[in-house]
UniProtKB/TrEMBL annotation:
Top enzyme class: oxidoreductase
Protein name: NADP-dependent oxidoreductase YfmJ
Protein EC: 1.-.-.-
Entries under InterPro entries matching the protein: ADH-like_C, ADH_N_2, ER, GroES-like_sf, MDR_fam, NAD(P)-bd_dom_sf
CDD domains: PGDH
Keywords on record: Oxidoreductase
GO molecular function, one term: oxidoreductase activity, acting on the CH-CH group of donors, NAD or NADP as acceptor
Source domain of life: Bacteria
């Protein structure tokens, strides 16, 4: 086994603006054997997430940044091929922070087993993985939707947004999605059951909100930030809840992050805006996954994955997130 090579992408520099292939170093290193307490995992699928851009910055956050020269952090699923850990056996499929590489070798901190006979492996990176957990807890705990509420989702055709919108529908809300392009907007309504859609690429978002949310917005689930956040703040209903799940429009700014100009709408409407980090809910993931799997079995919840093949395509595949090119949960097949 030591003769095998492990292809890896290391963080080579901290990008200013969009990352590129030069942000990373591609290396091939000899594959080792697990020591006591370690496992060796053959990575099968990697999750490509907007959060990865934040992990490249040397700044205080909810998780330490990736160090220069370290394997780029990524969640993924794979199969254990050697183990010196009592909880994991050869043949087990696992989900964890495996990194952008062919193989993970180390202590399985935060790893857990998944069952490929119950669901396709990419689903454990989308609806049944961290993406689904993010949508579930951000909407239900922070957004606290009530039946009859109007819920607006930005980035609605993306990984988290598409699931959050469907959960809001399950809870009896009127759901309006903001997405880029007619194809994505049709998908929201025809496939996912959204009540309305606003195409930010071809129409004025403020006018679309006025049309789709005549009584105002009770819950805004924000994945985008910037101008779209500003537009929705002008349509808030009294006691509205704004969930700050992400701000993908701001992640590659070369200048300071653009804050909301219309934040006084929070005061006037006695509304609140609250940030969200999914790992705060780790102890409840298993219960949420069971409920999500039940909704999927009943046909109430659909998951769409956008799978790109080949580890070496990683730098270019990651950029699909920031151009809006991906359609559904972006996954890299190793």
């Amino acid at each position: 086994m030591s003769a095998q090579l492990n292809r890896q992408f290391l963080l080579a520099q901290r990008p200013v603006g969009l990352p590129s292939r030069d942000t990373f170093s591609y290396v091939e290193t000899p594959l080792g054997e697990p020591a006591a307490g370690q496992i060796l995992v053959k990575n099968l699928y990697l999750s490509l997430d907007p959060a990865m851009r934040g992990w490249m910055n040397d700044a205080k956050s909810y998780i330490p940044p990736v160090g220069l020269g370290e394997v780029m952090r990524a969640l993924g699923v794979g199969q254990v091929i050697a183990s010196q850990h009592p909880d994991f056996a050869v043949g087990d499929h696992v989900n964890g922070a495996v990194g952008v590489q062919d193989y993970f070798l180390g202590e399985p901190k935060g790893f857990y087993k998944v069952d490929p006979s119950r669901a396709p492996l990419p689903l454990y990176l989308s609806a049944l993985g961290m993406t689904g957990m993010t949508a579930y807890f951000a909407l239900l705990d922070v957004g606290a939707p009530k039946a009859g509420d109007t819920v607006v989702i930005s980035g609605a055709a993306g990984a988290v947004g598409s699931i959050a919108g469907q959960i809001a529908r399950i809870k009896g809300c009127r759901v309006v999605g903001i997405a880029g392009g007619q194809e994505k907007c049709r998908f929201l309504i025809d496939e996912l059951g959204f009540d309305g859609a606003i195409d930010y690429k071809s129409e004025d978002v403020a006018a679309g909100l006025k049309r789709e949310c005549p009584k105002g917005v009770n819950v805004f689930f924000d994945n985008v930030g910037g101008d779209i956040l500003d537009a929705v703040l002008t349509r808030l209903a009294p006691k509205a809840r704004v969930v700050i799940c992400g701000a993908i429009s701001q992640y590659n700014n070369k200048e300071a992050v653009k804050g909301p100009a219309n934040y006084l709408a929070l005061l006037v409407n006695r509304a609140r805006m609250e940030g969200f980090v999914v790992m705060d809910y780790a102890a409840q993931f298993a219960d949420a996954a069971r409920e999500m799997a039940g909704w999927m079995a009943e046909g109430k919840l659909k998951s769409k994955e956008d799978i790109v093949e080949g580890l070496t395509t990683f730098p270019e595949a990651l950029l699909k997130l920031f151009s809006g090119e991906n359609f559904g949960k972006l996954v890299l097949k190793v």
